[in-house]
Design brief:
There is one protein chain. By secondary structure, the chain is an alpha/beta fold. The protein has three domains: 60 residues, OB fold (Dihydrolipoamide Acetyltransferase, E2P); 150 residues, 3-Layer(aba) Sandwich (Rossmann fold); 62 residues, Ribonucleotide Reductase Protein R1, domain 1 (Orthogonal Bundle). It contains eight helices and twelve strands. It has a six-stranded mixed β-sheet, with helices on both faces. Strands 1-2-4-3 form a four-stranded mixed β-sheet. It has a two-stranded antiparallel ribbon with strand order 5-6. The longest helix is centred in the last third of the chain and has 19 residues. It is globular and about 70 Å long.
């Protein structure tokens, strides 16, 4: 419901007024002082709150604790890791969007598990292609299928004791994976439109789901675009580990790896050490950032 935040007390704490809600949460509003400071609670925030109505299980958020990280898309805070979920097929994975997610997580210092879901729809050559593209991207790579129950047990182990955010486009199977992890129909699931080959939006808000004891996952709406704010073109190669490791080996200091001669990155690209798909994203983002700077 708009304007409400649902707060669950720490498991080790015993509030003076225990919640009467079935899931142990309080329905809270944020005090006006947050609006004055132009901040608002995010899913994943640790907060202090006061109970205002024990019968209706309501309260007010009075303080937001310091955050260790905060993402803008998805809007979440204090996450330990991220599952970036894309489908092998249906819908076809947009690798430039995937690479944008990886940059955003790397910018916040959040470890990534890259999940290629619906692996039952892909053959061995396709799965090997994804492994090849992202083997140097400094991410964990996992293939899953809710249909065949592939990779779900591995995911459960990776989530233990952590707060994990989910990110990815609609139709990739994020909600289906969460349901499989929690063992219940915690989230609505949708289909992929046959006409446009895109997922239909089923998650309309950001929600924290306890998938096992002391293990939480944040489901988020899927989206098909993501900007790259706060990154300079001169620093972009640092967000591509397989490119950044050659940064100081180019002939020219400050090489952009676009048009300069004697560029180590382009040499490694021609030798197959840097995947063409990843370099293609790097070049696309470099031009995007440079163009934005020219018009500021």
């Amino acid at each position: 419901m708009s304007g409400f935040y649902y707060v669950k007390p720490d498991s080790g704490e015993k509030p003076d007024t225990p919640p009467k809600s079935s899931d142990g949460t309080y329905q809270c509003r944020a005090r006006g002082l947050f609006r004055k400071k132009k901040i608002s609670p995010l899913v994943g925030d640790r907060v202090l709150f006061e109970v205002t109505d024990t019968d209706d299980v309501e309260g007010n958020v009075v303080e937001i604790q310091d955050r260790k990280n905060a993402l803008t898309r998805p809007q979440v805070a204090n996450v330990d890791q991220a599952l970036v979920i894309f489908a092998v097929h249906t819908p076809e994975p947009a690798l430039d969007l995937l690479d944008r997610f990886l940059i955003e997580m790397r910018r916040q210092g959040i470890e990534v598990i890259l999940v290629f879901n619906k692996d039952d729809l892909g053959g061995p050559e396709e799965l090997d292609r994804f492994k090849r593209i992202y083997k140097g991207a400094d991410v964990g790579i996992l293939f899953t299928s809710v249909v065949n129950d592939t990779g779900i047990d591995i995911l459960k182990e990776l989530l233990k004791g952590k707060v994990t955010t989910v990110a990815g486009p609609s139709g990739a199977g994020k909600s289906s994976i969460i349901n499989a992890l929690s063992g219940k129909e915690a989230m609505m699931t949708g289909e992929v439109s046959r006409k446009i080959g895109r997922g239909k939006q089923t998650t309309r808000h950001v929600e924290l789901v306890e998938v096992q004891e002391d293990s939480y996952i944040i489901d988020t709406p899927g989206f098909s675009s993501l900007e790259l704010p706060g990154i300079e073109s001169s620093d972009l190669d640092l967000y591509f580990p397989e490119i950044g490791k050659y940064k100081n080996m180019c002939y020219y200091s400050g090489c952009s790896h676009i048009s300069e001669p004697d560029c180590k990155v382009k040499q490694m690209l021609s030798e197959g050490e840097i995947p063409e798909e990843r370099y293609g994203s790097y070049r696309l983002f470099y031009e995007e950032i440079s163009k934005r700077r020219r018009y500021q």
